[in-house]
Structures
1.
Amino acid sequence: MTRTLHITIGTRPDRNGLEDTLGAIDEDEDVDPKPSRLSIESLATFGRIFRPTNLELLEAIVEHNPSSIRELARLVERHPPEVTENVHELADYGLIELEDNGRAKRPTVWYDEFEFSGDVPIRGLDTDSDAPVAP
């Protein structure tokens, strides 16, 4: 079974099913801890999260299953502090998980693919940029 993370851009978070999930938690029922949806508020945020260096990290995690962030840094031939910063950003957005592996943190990916959707209007884009906007 393919596990897909559905990503929308420029939309408010989808709260459908939140009430049911909270009720299930209150009743001590099993709840899937992995979200199937991620809402990204702006194109600038999308660009930052899915920049080539982060995509390279995701690919290396899936292909090589590193036991630590340090090992991941070796795989992509980058400095561990930079990779650590990127990995924590990916974890903050729920794109990866960091599992305790002794003293190290092991990055893991729970999905097999992304599916992107959402309407992105040309006018009024929230780019979080200081660049001048043409009239």
Note: The domain at 4-117 is CATH 1.10.10.10 (Arc Repressor Mutant, subunit A).
2.
Amino acid sequence: MIGRLNLLLILAVLVSGIYMVRSAYESRRLFTEVDRAQAEGRRLEADYQKLLADRQAQATNLRVEQVARERLKMRPISPAITFNPDAPAIEASGVRGRVPAQGAAR
């Protein structure tokens, strides 16, 4: 009877020890996984901040003007290249130097 009780207690201690070792191993594994995830989060946040800075640099007025000039072949407006569809009507009416107000009756 005492031999069986001792055997049962030894078995309980062994099972308990195995459970403790497994629990400690799982805890270390999860801690490592959390640490990796946090490092990845920090890396992604740094990439995001860099992309925001790049976007802000690309959206400056000088940059937009440069792209418009170089890629789109745009140029500043001047009276020599401006087309006014109302110009013949203004000249025919004899009114020079004055542009009729929008919405005014003709």
Note: The chain has three helices and no strands.
3.
Amino acid sequence: MKNHEQWTSKLGFILAAAGSAIGLGAIWKFPYMAGTNGGAIFFLLFIILTILVGAPILIAEFVIGRNTQRDAVRAYRKLAPQTNWHFLGLAGVTFSFILLSFYSVVGGWILSYLVRSFTGRLANADYGNLFNDIISNPAEVIISQFIFIVITILVVKGGVQKGIERASKYLMPALFIFFIVLAIRSVTLEGSAAGLEFLLKPDFSVMSGETVLLALGQAFFTLSVGISVMVTYASYLSKSENIAKSAFSVAGLNILICFLAGLVIFPAVFALGFEPGQGPGLVFVVLPAVFNEMAFGSIFLIIFLFLLLFATLTSAFSILEIVVAVLVKDEKEKRGKITWISGMLIFLVGVPSALSFGVLSDVQIFGRSIFDAADFLVSNIGLPVGAFFISLFVGYRLPRQLVKEELALGTNGVGLLFDIWYFSIRYVAPIAIVIVFLNSIGILS
């Protein structure tokens, strides 16, 4: 095998993995999912499921990737030769393909807003109507989605060190700092207290099996687990790093950014008279209105949209990387060509999702738009099912000693914490996923 590229530092890996995890999952999707599913109760379930189910599976993916130093398909082939476990990696690649196809549509929306912010056309606009005008314009959504995919391709084809890691090191901290500033402004708006209560005071009466399923899907979506993205990222990780500590760093940053996103959005929603259940357009409608309430708001809006675009791109990098890594197989000379071909195919598959709020708005798949159907397929079926089989693979297929030795690398040894994690990956995670699924389809309700 030719030399396998690696991250240059632990910090670079954590920031890149956190960028993949945070992305639109925390900033775009979490606020609207929480807004349409009870606010604080959804947030509470999300935290619990991230810690008890999401983080253990994230560690499991790190174990698979770092141990094998292989892509998502060959990693399973190496650990379980002459079995069908490699189909788990192939499923991950397939769902990653679908995920980026609709994810790039949202990236395109951000680009449309960014262009308008530079030209001054966002100032004092009717943001609800503006958002609807953008997403229903076929030429604009397709062109902006195409540009987003091209940016993603240009970075990913540069590889791990020169492309993904270099971009993440500088812009992830900037995004975090800016969100803190924005959250402070949001909670100081008059009437923001109702938004804080919506985010922080759970109402258990609105909880249902579907709420738990959606919270579980959100935990997996924001951590990028279940489709072997983190198997691929961890394959570039040095044997000297502590993967458990890295995993909890990523999970902790993920919860923190979701909390900050909630602090930015919901106090402003209630203070400015919006509805929290607006759906996918929530961030695009509320945040520009928040900036209107700030001194030099137009400048801050441009900075924020730029950082939001970066957060979106960091997730797109990781999703495209899993597809490219499987096809490149360490043959670096093929990387550029394969990245372009993969990216363009993903763009074409995503065109119906881009048009699903305009010319294809009447097309429904099981009562959902094309965009929402693709999102539901990945977030609430692909990710949980993939996470279920990953927990079984690490918990039952891999030798316990191999897993323990892998987790011990870069540490002074593992003891009780390993036993707790191993129990979780064998019993808690898979049982929780099954119970949530059965409850969501009405069998246990």
Note: The chain has 17 helices and no strands.
4.
Amino acid sequence: MRPLEFPLLADENIHRDVVRALLARGKDVRSVLDEGMGGRDDVDVLRHAHRQGRVVLTHDGDFGTLAYHGGEPFLGIIHLKPGHISPTFVLEMIAAIEASAGDVAPPFVLVAERKDALVRIRVRCAPTAR
């Protein structure tokens, strides 16, 4: 399955216009704010996403640390770098992921880093024994 085909949970740092655009494209996406979790710790968000069978969409690198080094269970994390940029910039990064990322198996972390017009995508699969 491709990374953006999974149900998504958008962290509160993902602009609402990005969430709306993903919904308009038919994506199964909920935001942390939709879930009544605004201001909650990242570990709570990661656990909630896991319980709901959702991949976390975020600008925050702490999720990968929690998953790999903290041992938190997770389905997937899509980390968009840099963060807090215009929705158009972020949607262009998402389009690059859709165009070039292949199938992934959970648990996985995908990091998409954009510099100018170039988007570098790295995927790391986590060990399944948790």
Note: The mean pLDDT is 91.
